[in-house]
Amino acid sequence: MKKRKGKGRTQRKNRKKGKMMEITNTDERAVNADRISELPEHILHHILCLLRWPADLARTSILSKKWKVIWESFTSFDFDQRHFQCVNAADKWDHLQPLPVEKQSSIFKQAFESLGFVELPLIHKFILFVENTLGTRLYQLPSIQKFRLHVVFSVHLLAPFMNHWISVATDKNVNELDIHAKMDGKFYALPELVFASRTITSLKLYGCEVGDSTSIKLQNLRELSMKAMRINENIVHNFVQACPLIEDMRLINCYGLKFLHVSSLPKLNKFEVHERSSLRSVKLEAPNLETFWFQGKKSSRCKLILAGCGNLKNLTLKHSHMADKSFHELISHFPLLEKLFLLECRTLHRITILSDKLKTLSLVRCHKLKEANIDAPNLLSFEYTGAELPFSSMNASRLQEVKLHLKSQKQKSVQKFIEGFDGKGCEYI
């Protein structure tokens, strides 16, 4: 076959809705076109968010004029000290030099030299990187979308700088603020101005300190996450009363909380509690709550009171001391439940689940479970992990996926159990 002279031309005709459709490649240059750069700006910004290393982010600015503009307009800032923690990190960031004096922040001028960072090169380079980024990019922006600061060592030395950086972010009307401060035995005290921000919609804190007398005025807050923090009932109450728009609330491995009572949050959609200390009770009154996840300690005897959450659809429980009676009383309040995950509920012995809404059911390492009766005609996915099959009866005619992880069980009984689902999508491990 001879090649045609001139521009390559390929035609393909498809029939669509009774009409002929012609697709033509008119130029070989289309093959080599930079299609990524032609994507909408918000998608390119999302691509930048996925780059892990700061140096990789900065390199995108030299790809083309458009990428330089995208880089300059990028309003998400992620400063992670772990990138400066490896053995060769100090050498990797040797190119970093202080900004000209006129562009240096006041905190840099006052504190940097006096802290003796000559003997602490990794901290030195991290501060230079953050200061240089703020000086060359953030100060020129009217507002920013996200500011994330992840500090894992020498927080006590960095605290004055952190206060300044966070203050700059709030002054720039930041929407999402994520502060991770890992300290041994102490907590990083956030600047008070954080809690008076009118623009913060997402606040994620790790290892930070919030006093129970702190004045909170986060009127537009929709997402709140507190991890590895010392909190009490007053702190939770202050957030609930001052932030009526909260939709997603998570308390992960926090200390000091004994009684958790949350109400007056009409928009609350998701609530998650991972217990670290001895929590005695969780009481939620949230009519629009759809997802609840509770993970208790092995020694926990926490009582769950969720009668005011009638629209719950997704329930995950890891509760070592939940008795049969408590379980049945709990799920009786959720007629719309679609997904149920029971993980290491070690005191369940005999349970009955009746639901025409349930679509997903997982029973994982509930080792003392001896009898289970399941009547869920619309169940689509089922998973069980344990020593033996405890199911006395199971009505799940629409089941599409079954996963069994068994330590010891007779092959015949397993085969008989699987045959009840016509073998569709069954996996036996």
From TrEMBL:
Origin species: Solanum stoloniferum
Transmembrane intervals: none
Domain of life: Eukaryota
Protein name: At1g61320/AtMIF1 LRR domain-containing protein
Limits of the At1g61320/AtMIF1 LRR domain: 147-300, 308-413
Signal peptide stretch: none
Pfam family, one: LRR_At1g61320_AtMIF1
